[in-house]
Amino acid sequence: MKPVHAIAGLLMAAAPLAAQTPVYLDDTKPIEERIEDALGRMTLEEKIAMTHAQSKFSSPGVPRLGIPEVWTTDGPHGIRPEVLWDEWNQAGWTNDSCVAFPALTCLAATWNTDMAALYGKSLGEEARFRNKSVVLGPGVNIYRTPLNGRNFEYMGEDPYLAGAMVAPYIRGVQSNGVATCVKHYALNNHEVNRHNTNVIVDDRTLYEIYLPAFKAAVQEGGTWAIMGSYNLYKDQHCCHNEYTLGKILRDEWGFDGVVISDWGGAHNTDQAIHNGLDLEFGSWTDGLRAGTKNAYDNYYLAAPYLEKIRKGEVGTEELDAKVRNILRLIFRTAMNRNRPFGSLCSDAHYAAARKIGGEGIVLLKNDGGLLPLSVEDGARILVVGENAVKMMTVGGGSSSLKVQREISPLDGIRERFSDKAEIVYERGYVGDVTGEYNGVTTGQDLSESRTAEQLIADAVSQAEDADYVIFIGGLNKSAQQDCEDSDRTGLGLPYGQDAVIEALAEVAADRLVVVNVSGNAVAMPWVDEVPAILQAWYIGSEAGHAIADVLSGDVNPSGKLPFTFPARLEDVPAHIFGEYSGTRVRDTLDIRYLDGLNVGYRWTDRQKKTKPLFAFGHGLSYTEFEYGKPRIDSSEMSLDGAVTVTVEITNTGDRAGQEIVQMYVGDRKSSLPRPLKELKGFRKVQLAPGESTEVSFTVDREDLSFFDPDRHEWVAEPGMFDIYVAAASDDVRGKVSFELK
Ligand code: BGC
Fold first, then answer.
1. 263 CA to middle of ligand 1, Å?
2. Of all protein residues, whose CA lies closest to atom 7 belonging to ligand 1?
3. CA atoms within 13 A on the CB side of 490
């Protein structure tokens, strides 16, 4: 039979249109059929070209067949500006400014799956409008140490919480016909030596702590792409790793999407061929100056791969599998004619960013009900601190953005309170005055000539007769703060901020609010001297509005911490038992996760003497919630059955608010040691003053299981289990028990 394209013209008059359409272009046909048809039309060279980049962020598709390029973009908080073809630097377009959504730590702190869905939908619309097929995010690496420079891009310390939040985010993005690329799979839990850290972790810890959120992303979120991480596991880089990609992702989880290398994460042609990598990106930072006409031809999955096939050293089976995966991605995205058109910088996106920001801010402390501010006519509000004015959407690494606008905390406060109060600003300290990333500049002049002492003295003198003093500090997006490719060097606040806060507390202890802007826990040696503390994260475009919403009480805070705030770095198991390296090395470096399952509250729960500064799941409200006694519908459960736990929650305060009810499971006796309790459910409920509601959780076998490394499976052992209903991991409000038969 002649190929379809050769006879198409002859048939034009007689046959219906569908008969002439090659199967791969016919979107009434099942995707798998279209994939096979397209694959069958491609030359070897075209297939090879599909498996690696043609520019910094795109791969070529098949121009001859009209199969479109794959355009990727960072991710995960907004859509990155266009960059030059072969460079990281922005291209200088004027139509690529975006809305910056709150950092993923803030999203996780909402504990609200509806917020995750809204986030994904909104971000996906921006990506779609900008014609991207793949968003490089979200990230779900577990918070193992507060030093990790990229924790702000992740969803906290708990695998269940991260898994529950990532799935709706993915579905939201992908409802736009834009793929998520969940990263960084796997075990990329700190940044220093990220390219040569070989993680040594036992199977149980791997399956119980570090994998579940990725599994949820694949099986519940249905992500169409995943990004291999830079580090190694079992001495193989995770971008081509037979265990994490082959055995686990494909065989155990049934992933049918595309594995994309982190930029520069591929290192070896043979491993890239055989160990699950589909699409190679970023192997050289500059595609033009690396010595040949087109340096992309030298990628591991480019000319070296072609040569191996031509010499007969490898067959084409692996190549066809890769191309099938890439075609599947293209049919789901760029060749999906039913996808919506997207939208950019819409009012709805700003509203979403503000709402998610407001819901994610955590009220850590509020002695004497200092917050919300009650501002009377003629009041004076003093705002102190660099983070009140510094733009935070520029910097931090690949998640850096070019925003259409960013409301600073100071602007948000001015906008909200200026009708009544005089707002005075004092710098307090100098942090990082730079404001540039890959050619995007903040345009802010943060230069300052006063000495540190003078800055404190000026702030203190303004504080003396202020009605409220709001210190807004924390970390920023500069190297060794919350920033990719570097880690923090300690838990403390940088730039001498503790001294500023302490000096302010001396004169204004009764009216001082500290707003900590960071994506990581920080030490707070002044915690007892400051009555009110907010954890405000990096909120993005609407930062100032969201913070003012909470300070004013327009929004009642309802976020809770997605990770533990340790009092000291020495209390963190990764640093007590495990290994962590903060010194750059050239060679591969074994890092043992000897802290095992003892991540976050799984460790602090067992400590009698050391208490965290703020526990996982902690967060206050301007109202109060009372928990009734939890009830369970049965005292016994069979292995294939379930029990339901119900608790009544009442808003006993005088303003509407939301409470996050947490459900943890504890196994009284097990053949392997288990954490005292583990999060297995949560629900966020909105209650008017005086209102009550019942919250129910269903607990089944999966919630009771641990990973048995010898049997290589999840096991629920018969015996007594406790279910804890809690307002925070350190604030259990009730317990019920049952026996698993
Ligand atoms: C980061 C990824 C990012 C990629 C592309 C890498 O350095 O680790 O998270 O998506 O660059 O910018």
1. 6
2. 263
3. 7
